Amino acid sequence: MDKGSGSYEVLLEVNGLWKIFGENLTDFVPDNPDSISRIQGEGAVLAVRNVSFTVRRGEVFVIMGLSGSGKSTLLRCIPRLHQPTRGEVIINGRNVLEMDENELIEFRRYEIAMIFQHYGLLPHRNVLENVAFGLKLRGVPSKERTEQARQAIVRVGLEGWENYYPSQLSGGMRQRVGIARALVQGSDLLLMDEPFSGLDPLIRREMQDMLINLLKEENKTIVFVTHDLHEAARLGDRMAVMRQGEFVQQGTPAEVINNPVDEYVARFVADERQLIAGKKVRQQPTTASMARASAARR
Ligand SMILES: Nc1ncnc2c1ncn2[C@@H]1O[C@H](COP(=O)(O)OP(=O)(O)OP(=O)(O)O)[C@@H](O)[C@H]1O
Ligand SMILES: [Mg+2]
Question: I want to staple 253 with a disulfide (CB 3.0 to 4.6 A). Which of 41, 105, 151, 233 is the partner?
Fold first, then answer.
């Protein structure tokens, strides 16, 4: 799709999503306060409460919020790693919650890639084998998957490290392997849960730059969880702030930073305001979206 044209296609749509950890939820009625009190009284955790958002193709959508606010749970509900209690998750026009077991396996293998802070590389396989592993599961022949894996390794800047093992790599390099592994799958949608949180600030910035550069070449759509507003502002086209399972504000990073809806959101943006040293955040595209727009023009 031509991202410069101004036309947008929705890739991911989440409607009225609830995730409750607990028992006896079959007769739970989302909008009924009595029903909510009942399950809370029984010790249920309302990790995600009535969350709705859409992500357009090619967009980076960032989710922020305090620890325990439900970010990871929400992200994991998208490919049904957690089974949502209520709501809809629609990707490319298909409702993930209506997929049967086989459809779900196919969907996870082809249409979505996940990158977490603890990336779960296979320790007894080298970089090349780790990156190619998803293709092996799909039955891609050895020569072809090696070729594709090598290309992805180059794209994340790890050329020359193909034969090293995860234990021989730094945290940043391991995360590059995780990203290469996701890229090689060729899926449109990447779910990233604090992928750079364990890294020191310089490496973290390098990883952000790498992601921004990748987005120039690849039409990826990303849902990105972070604690770091600066990261959100660099990478995000739009963002949402979560509190106790709910989205309290959605908008561009500039909108959220300049106009926090309440004290909770204001707390996050306070640091960022200091960082930009009194300068108003301009209502302009983020670094990531500008990079992609220039790629689309080429
Ligand atoms: N498997 C589970 N069973 C029961 N409760 C859970 C489970 N997973 C998460 N929770 C609860 O759901 C709530 C949201 O947790 P979640 O991990 O989504 O938060 P988070 O925003 O990702 O936090 P962090 O920033 O620390 O990663 C928390 O109260 C947590 O205890
Ligand atoms: Mg989390």
Answer: 233
Q: Low-confidence residues of the chain, pLDDT below 50?
A: 1-6, 277-284
pLDDT value for 200: 85
- Say how many Å lie between the CA of residue 101 and the centre of ligand 2: 26
Q: Which domain holds residue 262?
A: 3-111+187-297
- Using most ligand atoms within 8 A of CB, pick from 23, 51, 71 the residue to mutate for ligand 1: 71
Nearest Cα residue to atom 7 of ligand 1: 21
Q: What is the CATH number of the domain that holds 211?
A: 3.40.50.300
Domain count, the chain: 1
The finding on whether 226 has its CB within 6 A of some atom of ligand 1 is no
Distance (Å, whole) CA 258 – CA 281? 7
Give domain status of residue 137, yes or no. no
Q: Quote the pTM value.
A: 0.87
pLDDT tens per residue, range 71-107: 999 999 999 999 999 999 999 999 999 999 999 999 9
Instruction: Please report the atom of ligand 1 found closest to the CA of residue 72.
Output: 22
